[in-house]
Amino acid sequence: MSELYRSIRAEKATYSIVLLRRVLKVARPSYYAWRDGEAARRARRVADDAPAHEIAMLHIASGKTYGVPSQASTPHKYFDPTGPVAPGSCPGTPARGTTSGWGG
User: Fold this and answer.
1) Could you give the count of Cα atoms lying within 13 Å of 41 in the half-sphere of its Cβ?
2) Which of 21, 38, 70, 102 is 20 to 30 Å from the Cα of 14, by its Cα?
3) Residue 57 and residue 75: Cα distance in Å, rounded?
4) Residue 10 in contact with residue 2, Cβ under 8 Å?
5) What's the pTM?
6) Using one digit for the tens of pLDDT, what is the confidence trace for 36-77?
7) Residue 27: CA atoms inside 13 Å, Cβ hemisphere, count?
């Protein structure tokens, strides 16, 4: 719907707003409510961006160490970069096909 309102705003120098609203089938109160709310939407966008900017500045000031580290920078303690673990090679686990240590 806002595309219609923007079209009216863009073409109002060429055509009358009344004609544009009729052709595009836009109610008068709807168009003017959208137009009057534009400043409020812009102000809200600016207010929403302010905390994001502040957080970004704090992150940069901390040497980009503030916050939770990514998974790539801190692998899990059981992660083996050489590949999958062979059955029975982990301490405390039985080899495949045996039941010792598993209660059976």
Assistant:
1) 7
2) 38
3) 27
4) no
5) 0.40
6) 888 888 888 888 877 877 888 887 887 777 655 555 555 556
7) 4
